[in-house]
Specification:
- Helices cover 10% and strands 44% of the residues.
- By secondary structure, it is mainly β.
Amino acid sequence: MTRPILWALGVLAVAAVAGGSMTERFARIGRGPAAAPAQLSAPLSASAAGVVQAAPGSDPSVTLAQDLSGHFRAHPQVDGQVLRMLVDTGATLCVFTREDAGRIGLTVAERDYTARVATANGTVPAARVRVREMRLGGITVRDVEALVLPGGRLETSLLGMSFLRRLRGFEVAAGRMILRG
């Protein structure tokens, strides 16, 4: 019982050593059952991939329900593949499991793990990557900065601020998170 709570509240400090704008990065890693699927408040149309999107010309917003552990989970399309991600406003960057990185076509070699990440379970190497496109409902963000952790080091990929800060805004109230595209 204590381990999942500590894991969910653990802090992941990312010390990325890239150009001037990258300094220490922080992220929390959590666990819990999946939340209800995202819902859109804009007019809807279904895409070929089965992802619900806002109609052209509308201002998309996505509403996520809080899960039983208090987290928000999303299922964005990342470079065309649907991933299960934990929304983490404390994570400066999006962080992918090695398995999810493989699903979206990112090839990470051992020599690419040049950043160091401090977790509740110790320091972990991380590889810096960029994702061409992330879509959540009718919201699309391109050229997203992210990290990949080695296999077995992260249970669920994190949807961090490198995606969220590119939105018009987001808010949390009454067990819901509203993302505005």
